[in-house]
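Review the following:
>
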Amino acid sequence: MHRLLYTSEARPVGSGDAAQDEVQALCRRFADANAAVGLSGALIYIDRQFIQVLEGTLDVLEDLFERICCDFRHANVRLIDLMPIEERLFKDWGMACLSAGESSPINLRDELSEVNFLVGVNGREAVDQIRSLLNRYGGGASFTQASGSERLAEAFAA
């Protein structure tokens, strides 16, 4: 089992809250696909940046990361960390998603901006911070490997 962390510049079609809605739709779509191949993880979207942590077998992670690098929705993809793990931190999420748009609460924007900064300084600490944010903002929302159809950040929409 391995954990992969990467960042990229996002190229969503919309802007502002429309881009946030597009990212949420992508998360819902990919949650079930990730779960089907044994992946778990989380995606952060802030200031047109994707920060994603994925957990799974090395061969599946390598294949997915190669597809991400070729995906037109990503620019300047940077692998931050790839490490073997004994247990998953994101086992309950096929693809958890936290994003902040123009109408998001300022504290959520601030915390996601902090993760965006932290990922460039200490990737492993950034992963721990992402997990902490999911505990805090996930609340009762169910974003599991079995079903990625619910929006984790629904409470933060306009």
Summary: Confidence is low (pLDDT under 50) at residues 139-158. Residues 17-36 form the longest helix (20 residues).
